[in-house]
């Protein structure tokens, strides 16, 4: 026994100081960093792989976008949008001016002149995140003339309706006889004509008349403006405080209005059905995960109402599946199902189909909106003037939306503003225009695209992520399982060491 102990000590290069001792071998667990790393990384990868089957990266990205966090691309693009909206403005020049003035003709012959191209500058300022899942901001729009995009000059001369004379005469349609008599005297004294020759610039920005100046000085509460320039009227007060819904809890009503200038209504119409801000958007962002059954809604001050757009067809745009929505051609028609026509002002007779009153948004001037060239309007209205050539391909409106993100890839909308001349037979110089609708101009708003980085982001979310999602999740599960297997193998075979101890033979009981 002792000789065996000596030999064992010699083979292990161990010193046996006492021949009465022997060596005993035992195993001790030793955890090293390599094993812990394998196990931790494997568990993390496995858990993440399983979770991404339930909560996909695309869903997480879209949910985060709903929060509109400062610094992230969706917010920054909205807060400081690139000036991608073009305004193409078309004016109507009266070509039979002399015949109208001398009374040999009563039907206006109109010639479309344009486009005059502007870029609409949109600013969002004073942004505040509210505790109730909404965001408040100030929205302001301004048109900027683009000389390099224009072939026509703002100094060109046009013959156009005298908005001051025709507007005041229409406003005083039901005035007493002595008032009409006095107005006729003033009209003759100032020599106001129903048609005037003016420059394009003045017609857009500085359209006035001595009659209008006099009226605004005498009765400022009735005539609050002395400038009827068409772009001046549209953009003079195009600055509003808007509160919209944001956040994951408001995904279906994302960026729809909660308040407009501090109220839950616009303040233009008495009927709450027409005046409510519910479902209204600015047309810049829509809710995510749009379905073909959804109707989208936008508010534009030029239309003075919330307007629905409906799904038309599925298309491919910039490599992505997109939905094309259109503005129905019966948008400006009178209701046919018995519902109240709340876009007809009290005391006024309804306008023909294809025309809608927008006077509350134009200082109560008798202005009605329609599709350009009276597209889809009552034929009697379209035939009351010469020069209308409606074309659905050119004059209709559409929006192309990427349905996953709700971002519009392109939008194009045209609207025509017309002067609704009422019964003005009491005013000799304009009596020939009684009960008529005179086209003033039409404008097309064209969002020509979104920045490339947003297109890439939408493409990544809508196309790339869904195709690689299953691969990524499966890879993470396989990787996690492999790392765990390696970790357990190393733990079993390499996470223990042999320790040799000396034990005195005297302590071992002898066999008897």
Automatic annotation (TrEMBL):
InterPro entries: CD36_fam
Main location: membrane
Spans through the membrane: 35-55, 453-486
GO annotations of cellular component type: cytoplasm; plasma membrane
Keywords on record: Cell membrane, Glycoprotein, Membrane, Transmembrane, Transmembrane helix
Transmembrane helix keyword on record: yes
Compartment(s) where it occurs, according to its Swiss-Prot or TrEMBL record: Cell membrane
A GO molecular-function descriptor: scavenger receptor activity
Entries under Pfam families matching the protein: CD36 (PF01130)
PANTHER family: GH15894P (PTHR11923:SF89), SCAVENGER RECEPTOR CLASS B TYPE-1 SR-B1 (PTHR11923)
Family: Belongs to the CD36 family.
Name by which UniProt lists this protein: Scavenger receptor class B member 1
